[in-house]
């Protein structure tokens, strides 16, 4: 909508579907803007990312249609890379950009959970500012695990609005939980299990077939480091990404707080921070999921047999199923904290069968919580075995 001065010639025009509503009141005038926002992002799954003939790192963020419009004289890229990944692949990354004649800067950073901080974001911002990027056509590239992708994403959005941003996930967890990209062959086993936790989450919430695949072949997949030549691994990562996108895409701004992807994320943030750096993100998520499986069982949603199958599957994926610091007191505090951020109503995703779930809006009764904690501890704590 275009507002016009009274003496201007009358014209009609539409800039966008945005609407502006004006209201006069005794206090003054107010304008309310209703602006439909279309948000487009692209996910590319590819091999040989650092092959000089592969365009993904340069143009992977653009649609085919836009690609033809952009032919800059000089191609600039700013790359933030996790320190460990830099040690492993830094030379290849450099070789790639050199061979494509790109003007680039590579910034290796210690992007681990302990260092995930605003200082890191500020450092990136300063370096990007010194290097200088065109806000529309020159993306920031992040290469690393979930921490690297998170901090660089925040920096990109703070630098200039809508600065394009390419994520290259290098851990399994980062790969399946929002993006896809690099191989995982160099990852230690513990990091692979860590990523498996987020895959198991989607399996328990939405996909019985995926659960059965993890149950039957999870251990072998870990042994083979989920290389794509193995059909089960390729199917697992693909279904994990698809189920994750089905949940995330319609609710990008989290307008709807009823999110199945929050399973395993109600108690785990408190636990993870309390014992940092003892538990990886996915490990804390798994402990939370395991406890909630006991809650589901005591609510009559899962049979004893189903509960045992989930626990066996978790153990097969080398994931922790219990932790001494996940006390009843911590669980109470975490759930209350969660309630404070849930617009007044509890929102608890719980499995109702293998591969099916519902969001429950009632608080778990104290009695049931302590029964679940007791049963969980007596069945799974190392002392009680
Ligand atoms: N934004 C989202 O949607 C989203 C979703 C899930 C998780 N997260 C965040 O992601 C983080 C967890 O991610 P993560 O598990 O990838 O942890 P991470 O980023 O800390 O990486 C784990 C470790 O692996 C190392 N590493 C990374 N790639 C490697 C490789 N190819 N070979 C060897 N070592 C490698 C890193 O240096 C680090 O020490 C958490 O902070 C979590 O909050 C964000």
What does this structure look like?
The chain is α/β, with parallel strands linked by helices. The chain has a domain at 189-384: Dehydroquinate synthase-like, alpha domain, CATH 1.20.1090. The protein is built from 14 helices and eight strands. The chain has a four-stranded parallel sheet with strand order 4-3-5-6, with helices on both faces. Strands 1-2 form a two-stranded antiparallel sheet. A two-stranded antiparallel sheet has the order 7-8. Strand 1 (19-25) and strand 2 (28-34) form a beta hairpin. Helix 4 crosses helix 5 (146-159) and helix 10 (268-275) packs across helix 11. The longest helix has 18 residues, at 189-206. The radius of gyration is 24 Å and the shape is globular. The N and C termini lie far apart (69 Å). The model is unreliable at 1-6 and 180-185 (pLDDT under 50). The structure holds nicotinamide-adenine-dinucleotide (NAD). The site of nicotinamide-adenine-dinucleotide has 26 residues, from helix 3, helix 5, helix 6 and helix 7. Keywords: Lyase, Metal-binding, NAD, Nucleotide-binding. InterPro entries: Dehydroquinate_synthase (IPR050071), DHQS/DOIS_N (IPR030960), DHQS_C (IPR056179), EEVS-like (IPR035872). Its cofactor is NAD(+). Residues 195-334 form the 3-dehydroquinate synthase C-terminal domain. One of its GO terms (biological process) is antibiotic biosynthetic process.
């Amino acid at each position: 909508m275009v507002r016009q001065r009274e003496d201007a010639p009358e014209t009609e025009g539409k800039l966008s579907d945005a609407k502006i509503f004006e209201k006069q009141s005794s206090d003054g005038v107010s304008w309310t803007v209703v602006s439909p926002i279309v948000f487009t992002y692209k996910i590319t799954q590819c091999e040989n990312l650092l092959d000089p003939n592969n365009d993904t790192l340069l143009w992977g963020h653009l649609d085919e249609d836009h690609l033809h419009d952009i032919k800059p004289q000089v191609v600039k890229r700013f790359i933030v890379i996790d320190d460990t990944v830099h040690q492993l692949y830094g030379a290849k990354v450099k070789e790639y950009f050199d061979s494509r004649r790109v003007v680039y800067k590579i910034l290796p950073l210690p992007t681990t959970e302990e260092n995930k901080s605003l200082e890191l974001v500020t450092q990136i911002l300063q370096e990007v500012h010194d290097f200088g990027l065109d806000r529309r056509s020159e993306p920031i590239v992040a290469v690393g695990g979930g921490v690297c992708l998170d901090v660089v994403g925040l920096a990109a959005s703070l630098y200039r609005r809508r600065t394009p941003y390419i994520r290259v996930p290098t851990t399994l967890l980062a790969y399946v939980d929002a993006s896809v990209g690099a191989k995982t062959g160099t990852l230690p086993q513990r990091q692979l299990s860590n990523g498996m936790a987020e895959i198991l989450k989607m399996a328990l919430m939405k996909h019985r077939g995926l659960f059965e695949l993890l149950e039957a072949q999870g251990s072998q997949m870990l042994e083979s480091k989920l290389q794509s030549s193995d059909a089960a691994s390729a199917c697992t990562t693909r279904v994990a990404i698809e189920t994750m996108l089905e949940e995330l895409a319609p609710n990008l701004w989290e307008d709807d707080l009823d999110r199945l992807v929050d399973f395993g994320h109600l108690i785990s943030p408190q636990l993870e921070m309390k014992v940092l750096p003892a538990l990886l993100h996915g490990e804390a998520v798994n402990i939370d999921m395991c406890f909630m499986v006991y809650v589901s069982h005591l609510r009559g949603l899962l049979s004893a047999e189903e509960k045992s199958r989930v626990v066996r599957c978790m153990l097969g994926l080398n994931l922790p199923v219990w932790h001494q610091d996940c006390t009843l007191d911590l669980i109470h505090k975490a759930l209350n904290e969660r309630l404070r951020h849930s617009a007044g109503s509890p929102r608890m995703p719980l499995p109702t069968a293998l591969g099916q779930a519902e969001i429950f809006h009632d608080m778990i009764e104290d009695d049931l919580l302590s029964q679940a904690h007791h049963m969980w501890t007596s069945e799974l704590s190392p002392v009680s075995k």
